[in-house]
Every structure is written in C-alpha cells, then in structure tokens.
Amino acid sequence: MSKNPIFIEIKTKAKKASKAKSLSIMALTLLSTSAASTTAFIAVFFLLLGGSAASETEFSVEWDHEKLPKSDVDLLEFPLNLEYMEAEFFSWGALGRGLDSLAPNLTMGGPPPIGVRKAQLSPVIRDIIAQFAFQEFGHLRAIKSTVRGFPRPLLNLSAESFATVMNNAFEKPLEPSFDPYANDINYLLASYVIPYVGLTGYVGANPKLKTPTAKRLVAGLLGVESGQDAVLRALLYERAFVKVLPYDFTLAEFTDKISNLRNKLGKRGLKDEGLIVNPMLGAEGRIKGNVLAGDQYSLSYDRTPEEILRIVYGSGKENKPGGFYPKGADGKIAKSHLRHEEKRFNDNKL
Ligand SMILES: *[C@@H]1O[C@H](CO)[C@@H](O)[C@H](O)[C@H]1NC(C)=O
Ligand SMILES: *[C@@H]1O[C@H](CO)[C@@H](O)[C@H](O)[C@H]1NC(C)=O
C-alpha cells in the first residue's frame, strides 16, 4: 500500500484543533471528491465516530497502513536491535557475507558490523545457521512492514567481543582467548549467547502490547526465536560433557557460566539457565537435564528492554553502551536511556 499524505494531514490537524465536526465534513469532502484509499476511509470513519478518539489516544502518524499506539510501535521496534545482530552473526558465520551483500535494503544505511567473520563450520551446522540467517532477514522484514524501524546500529561482532563475554562469564581471562568463529562448538556456544535473549524479550513485551497486529507479530517472532534456541540447545546438549578444547571446561559448564553472567547483568534474578542444572531448577524440580530453560512451571522467562540492554551492552546498565553495541542500541526505548546519560554527563560538566 502506498503512502497517503492526505491521511497524515487529517490526523495531524485532528490533534491540533479538536474541531471534530468541521474536520469530519472536510474529510467527507475529501472522501467524495478524491479517489479514496482504504486508509483515508478508515481515518474518516474514525473522525465520524466522534473525533475525540483521535485526540485522546496518541497514534503514530508516521506509518499509514495500520494505526498502532506509540507504545506498541516502541515495543516492536526495540527487538530490531537484536534481529540485526542475529542476522549479521548467522549470515556471516554460515555464508561469509551479511546484509550488505545479501539484503542491502534491510540495513537502511546503517554502518557495517565490526569484526564479523565466516566461521569454520561442518556442513550440517553451516546449513542450519544459514537457515537461521535467512529467518532473521525475514524477521527484519516482518517488523519493518509493521513499523518504520531504524537503520542497523553499529555492531561489534569481533572475536574479542565474544571473548570478553566469556572472560566475564568465567571471571578470568580464558587462555587462549575464546574464538567464536573457530569451529562448530565455539560457534554454537557463541550463538547460545544470542536468540535466547531475544526470546525472553518477546515474552516480556507480549503482555504490554495493545493491538492484535502487534501481538500476532510478536507471537510469530517468539515462535521461531524459541525454535532457534531449542535447536542450538539440543545441539549443545548432545555434547554437554565434552570439553571445549583447549579449555578445561565442559560445554555444560560454559552454558552455566554464560547464563549466570546474564542473570547477573540483567539484575532481575534467575531468568537464564544452563544445560545441566541442580534438579531443583529442572522441569517440575525433578530433573537435572535442562535442554530448555523455563521457570517452575516450565514457562519461558521474560525480560524487559532495560534488562536486555544491560546484558547486550555487557555493562549491567541500560544507559552504558558497550559490548556488542559500542554506540548503543537504537529506537525510542534504548535512546531514552542514552539521552538520560548524555544529560547527566552534560549536567556534570556545567
Ligand atoms: C531497494 O533499494 C533500491 C535502491 O534504493 C530500490 O530501488 C529498491 O526498490 C529497493 N527494493 C526493495 C525490495 O525495497
Ligand atoms: C570491539 O570489541 C572489542 C572487545 O571488547 C574491543 O577491544 C574493540 O575495541 C571493539 N571495537 C570497537 C570499534 O568498538
């Protein structure tokens, strides 16, 4: 559906002057004289309903094919940050190329990621990761066909960036430093760092959404994101007691450390669990194998955007960028925290 400037104009006016009746007449005139598109019709219908609805609820006027409340727009845009990262990490890991070469429009002109590389993967793992990559491209398209979105933020996907996560997880530098791109196991462990965080974000966003359109989209994203997490966890689980060479730690120990780190950074208690747990944390409190993470009822944990920012920035603070997002995440929610920080910084300078 094409942009409809008339629609936007009507709504902007409706906000300024709430003279609903004259506007309704104006809109009716537009409707009968111009070739009315469905969006214009919906706008008119809305004004005729009383005109007050448009001025009471703040609707986003930027996008014309669906009226979403601003809060839904913000909650739908936020996960783009994670989807961009997954798209680039999986696409480069499997195919040695990212969005710039495979789907340049999806970047919306954002800078290319730092340090991302093709991983040394066996054919089956490469095939699975390539599928994940294209699934993420689809997710980017799905979100952007519903909300405007923003350009790809600067991403630091260098080996050092993942090595830093692992060092923080073990609370000491691993020797040699962890290389996510070195082999299947390392790449799967690095991937364990990613879709799960997105999944908890979708669970957290869902109860805050107001419209069926937004809920449908988030349910669809959540389904596939959980599927990816399950595939990764199952592949890792098969090798849970294998040592991650050359380190003296098993794969299960790595997942445990990574999950603990995320719990620590998120600052909202236990929302992340490794592959082998104290049976108290397993399903029904009765089993130590933990191929999927879940709460006491085996329901997925939820996280707020703030918890997610604390984790992906690696700083434990939603207003202190770093980690995978050297310049911070984008969108209204993430930016609001960065602005606070800038303001504090400037206030301190005065
Ligand atoms: C991608 O961008 C190019 C250049 O801006 C444009 O011509 C093309 O229509 C876009 N394709 C899609 C699918 O949006
Ligand atoms: C990327 O992350 C690594 C590890 O934290 C850091 O050493 C490097 O300076 C970062 N690069 C940029 C451009 O931020």
From TrEMBL:
<dbReference type="InterPro" id="IPR052965">
    <property type="entry name" value="Pigment-catalase-like"/>
</dbReference>
<dbReference type="Pfam" id="PF13668">
    <property type="entry name" value="Ferritin_2"/>
</dbReference>
<protein>
    <recommendedName>
        <fullName>Desiccation-related protein PCC13-62</fullName>
    </recommendedName>
</protein>
